[in-house]
Amino acid sequence: MPRYALRIEYDGRPFAGWQRQAEHPSVQGALEAAVARISPGAGAVFGAGRTDAGVHAAGQVAHLDLPRAWDPFRLSEALNWHLKPDPVAVTGAVEVPEAFHARFDAVERRYRFRLVARRAPLTEDRGFAWRVNHPLDLEAMRAAAAHLVGRHDFTTFRSSICQAPSPVRTLDAVGIEELDYPAGREIRFHLRARSFLHNQVRSIVGTLERVGTGAWPPGRVAEALAARDRSACGPVCPPDGLSLIEVRYPAPLFERP
């Protein structure tokens, strides 16, 4: 059976996350329903990352096997037709070797988190950014984030229900930039790693926000990391601003988004 990789974009708000669930809508479930309409008897859709409820994606990658060969462009068009009205879109499709696996072959995942600091509520970006009503100190947050880069035991920064066999991960980079935003400032966090733990990004951003307000000194983040204790973590921020931007492989599958 030919195997295809898909690049997928979605608004995570209507879904209980990526992973298929019996009683709740999921991105995986929506894709598999669309696949069943164009190719009855096709297998499951396997994603590169299990995004949580409310988390978005601009560059999720998945693979699936189909009983017959498809032109990749026609495949993406057919899936997008049957995905309507769900806020899920296939933005790329390519045939890949039978041994390819969207999750296990990935060498890097890139997440972006959008935070808006302003007094007024969000309207256009509601559900796509986390609003805080106070200014943040970028340099303090950057100093704190530097303690997290590298290979560490991230027990403090993962969910208590995380199922990963080891809390050790290598965080390749945490970039923080500030942009103009109407009546406030937008702060974007860019995180890169081969893999992430459950709630790791949201735990990190929520903790860095405490540093930005001045409630935590930057050095307290290093102490929290060393504690290897979930109770030492700052608050876990909401999923609204989080998006899986890109998944990378040893050889590029798609044109860069």
TrEMBL record:
Domain Pseudouridine synthase I TruA alpha/beta, residue spans: 9-105, 144-250
GO biological process, one term: tRNA pseudouridine synthesis
Catalytic function, reaction form: uridine(38/39/40) in tRNA = pseudouridine(38/39/40) in tRNA
Cited InterPro entries: PsdUridine_synth_cat_dom_sf (IPR020103), PsdUridine_synth_TruA (IPR001406), PsdUridine_synth_TruA_a/b_dom (IPR020097), PsdUridine_synth_TruA_C (IPR020095), TruA/RsuA/RluB/E/F_N (IPR020094)
Enzyme Commission designation: 5.4.99.12
Domain of life of the native organism: Bacteria
Family: Belongs to the tRNA pseudouridine synthase TruA family.
Protein name as it appears in the record: tRNA pseudouridine synthase A
Source organism: Amaricoccus solimangrovi
